[in-house]
Amino acid sequence: TPVYDVTAGTVTSITVPAGVLSPASTYYWHVRHRDNEGAWSIYSEETWFCAESTPAGYYVAYTEAAVTVEYTEVVAGGCTSVTTSSSNPEGPLPSGYCPLLPYTDVSTTASYSGTITVALAYNPAGVADESLLTMMHWNGSDWVNVTTMVNDSANIIYGDVNSLSPFIVCYPCGFNGGGARSADAFPSIWIGIAAVAGAGIAA
User: Fold this and answer.
1) What does the angle CA 116 – CA 168 – CA 161 come to, to the nearest 5 degrees?
2) Phi-psi region of 57 (alpha: psi -120 to 50; beta: other; left: phi over 0)
3) Do 185 and 68 touch, CB atoms closer than 8 A?
4) Are 115 and 137 spatial neighbours (Cβ–Cβ below 8 Å)?
5) How far apart are the first and last CA of the chain?
6) Which of 51, 31, 54, 53 is nearest to 42 (CA)?
7) % of the chain at pLDDT higher than 70
8) 8 A C-beta contact, residue 149 and residue 157
9) CB-based burial label for 176 (10 Å; 0-12, 13-18, 19+)
10) Helix (H, G, I), strand (E, B), or coil: what is residue 130?
């Protein structure tokens, strides 16, 4: 069902009225043309955009499910998104570290500057000593320890980074019996919204 559908004259852009789109949602759209005889063309190939979830400013926070990302400065607004996986999306973890699943990949279309603080909630079940937990971040070639604090009362681990990519909470292998463990993290729920148009946007 379209969330926005409009027929207009000769235009190069369309402004969607305030209140139509939901922040942090992805929308799909396409257009078609009507000639002087009143005949419609076929629709263009579908493309997409996201409604801004990370506005420009200082100390801008975005939260999704078990993840909070706080930017020191967002220079140009955009969308931040979080995906999780039970499989390692990058290279092997450092020797002696086992993953407390899931792996969490954070990305953004916003332009930012300075430090980014990432907070990951975890399930403490089966964790013998939460003070030994570490947050690993993939820096493009290696997993590196970026942990700044473990809040064992709230079951949240914090880390500071200068870029976004996959993260994983780890514990010393063998300390909890070895092998990967599931954190039973809170699930991410996404509502996909598609767009159609004469120009138009659909859910």
Assistant:
1) 20
2) left
3) no
4) no
5) 5
6) 31
7) 86
8) yes
9) middle
10) helix
Per-residue pLDDT, 203: 43
pLDDT at 147: 98
Q: How far apart are alpha carbons 2 and 20 in whole angstroms?
A: 11
| Structure token pair of residue 126 | 């089966």
Question: What count of other Cβ atoms lies within 10 Å of the Cβ of residue 7?
Answer: 10
Candidates 132, 160, 125, 130; CA nearest to 144 is 160
- The Cβ-side half-sphere exposure at 125, using a 13 Å CA radius, reads 7
Residue 176 pLDDT: 58
CA 104, CA 89: separation in Å to the nearest integer?
9
- Give every residue of the chain whose pLDDT is below 50, as ranges: 177-179, 183-203
Alpha carbon distance 168, 145 (integer Å): 10
Is the CB of residue 83 less than 8 Å from the CB of residue 105?
yes
Q: Distance (Å, rounded) from C-alpha 43 to C-alpha 36?
A: 17
> Is 49 exposed, middle or buried, given 0-12, 13-18 or 19+ CB atoms closer than 10 A?
middle
What is the reported pLDDT for 97? 95
